[in-house]
């Protein structure tokens, strides 16, 4: 594949991944601070964001030429945190939940999201310092 096209695809996937994370964690942070639930019109957006996160994250993981020591352990931790956020999103979108339970789940999704972002930052640092 053309190197310019490869660089453009990698940049686009990274951008999509970051924007999707901002939308997902931002939505939970908004509902946490305003003590409201997701409107029905926004729920379809959340499904699209989750699919985009999975596709762009899988692309980035599989396109990495090598992994530094400890990368897989921290990636596994990040993946578990993200799966927690996805599980909360599915639970909140599938059934009706009372406001107290919604707020508790939204709070935990925000905490997991911030932890996942911190782990992602560490993974990026590991990749940069290892020259990957």
If you had to describe this structure to a student in words, what would you say it looks like?
This protein is mainly α. It has one domain: Four Helix Bundle (Hemerythrin (Met), subunit A) (Up-down Bundle), CATH 1.20.120. The chain has 4 helices and no strands. Helix 2 runs antiparallel to helix 3. The longest helix is centred in the first third of the chain and has 32 residues, at 3-34. The radius of gyration is 16 Å and the shape is globular. The model has no long low-confidence stretch (mean pLDDT 90).
Q: What is the CA-atom radius of gyration, in angstroms?
A: 16 Å
Structural class: mainly alpha
CATH topology: Four Helix Bundle (Hemerythrin (Met), subunit A)
Q: What overall geometry do the principal axes of the alpha carbons give?
A: globular
| Measured distance between first and last alpha carbons | 20 Å
| Count of alpha/pi helices | 4
Low-pLDDT regions:
none
Number of domains: 1
Biggest β-sheet: count, sense, barrel?
Answer: none
Strand-and-helix sequence, N→C? HHHH
Examine the secondary-structure arrangement and name the CATH architecture.
Answer: Up-down Bundle
Structure summary, number of beta strands = 0
Return the CATH class.
Mainly Alpha
Q: Provide the residue-averaged pLDDT.
A: 90
Helical fraction equals over 70%
Query: What percentage of amino acids are in beta strands?
Result: under 5%
């Amino acid at each position: 594949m053309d190197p310019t096209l490869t660089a453009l695809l990698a940049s686009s996937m990274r951008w999509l991944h970051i924007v999707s994370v901002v939308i997902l964690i931002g939505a939970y942070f908004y509902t946490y601070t305003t003590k409201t639930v997701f409107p029905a019109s926004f729920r379809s957006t959340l499904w699209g964001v989750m699919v985009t996160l999975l596709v762009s994250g899988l692309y980035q993981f599989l396109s990495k030429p090598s992994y530094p020591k400890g990368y897989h352990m921290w990636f596994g931790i990040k993946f578990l945190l993200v799966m927690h956020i996805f599980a909360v999103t599915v639970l909140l979108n599938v059934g009706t939940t009372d406001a107290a339970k919604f707020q508790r789940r939204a709070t935990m999704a925000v905490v997991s999201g911030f932890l996942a972002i911190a782990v992602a930052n560490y993974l990026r640092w590991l990749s940069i310092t290892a020259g990957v």
